[in-house]
Amino acid sequence: MSVYKQLQCLSDEDMVEICDNYTSASEYLRSINMSENGRYTTLLNSKRRELNLEWKPVIPNITCPVCNISFKPKSKNQVTCSRSCSNTYFRSGVNHHAYDPDKQNYRTLCFAHYPKECIICGEDKIVAVHHYDENHENNDIKNLVPLCPTHHQYMHSRYKYLIEDQVKRWIELL
After folding, report:
1. Is residue 152 classed exposed, middle or buried when 0-12, 13-18 and 19+ CB atoms within 10 A define those classes?
2. Domain ranges (residues) in the chain
């Protein structure tokens, strides 16, 4: 049977599958090692039009938002170039499914507004963040107090009275 007859005998289901998997008649013909004869491409395109089918759209190259490499996505939903970049992109920041800008890390919030040093002794090597009202859900900037580990422990112990006035004054000055 001639190539032309084989193409004429393609079923509707075969034609749907071809249109779903290839971007053009030429691409399909190349994939089955046939020449891109104008007669063959015309036949395939006329069959496609009869069935109201469209060729699979060409997906343009996009740039990975993590590593800035240009790549051809394998699907229309693909955002990053690799699994590694995907993990970075979707497991942190605004792209994470649980991201809530109102619940940013309290340490990041605190040190974005205040110097990274204990308000009592000035320690700047190791600094903890104390929630003044002791409600860890309340990350309001006026509730976050930078303290060294020792003074932070004071706030959670019977020695709280030794530094409580200084902390209150610091908060009132905000």
Report:
1. buried
2. 3-50, 62-95, 101-172
Residue 167 identity: V
User: Nearest 10 degrees: CA dihedral of 158, 164, 166, 171?
Assistant: 140
Rounded to a whole number, what is the distance in angstroms from the first to the last CA of the chain? 88
Query: Nearest CA to 44 among 27, 58, 59, 61?
Result: 27
The CA-CA-CA angle for residues 139, 143, 145, to 5°, reads 110
Write the pLDDT tens digit of every residue in 79-110: 999 988 888 888 776 666 666 666 668 888 89
As given in the structure block, the two tokens for residue 93 are 């920041």
pLDDT in tens, 106-158: 888 898 899 999 999 999 999 999 999 999 888 889 999 999 999 999 999 99
Residue that is written with structure tokens 């303290």 in the block: 147
Share of the chain above pLDDT 70, in %: 92
Q: How far is CA 141 from CA 116, 122, 129, in A?
A: 14, 19, 11
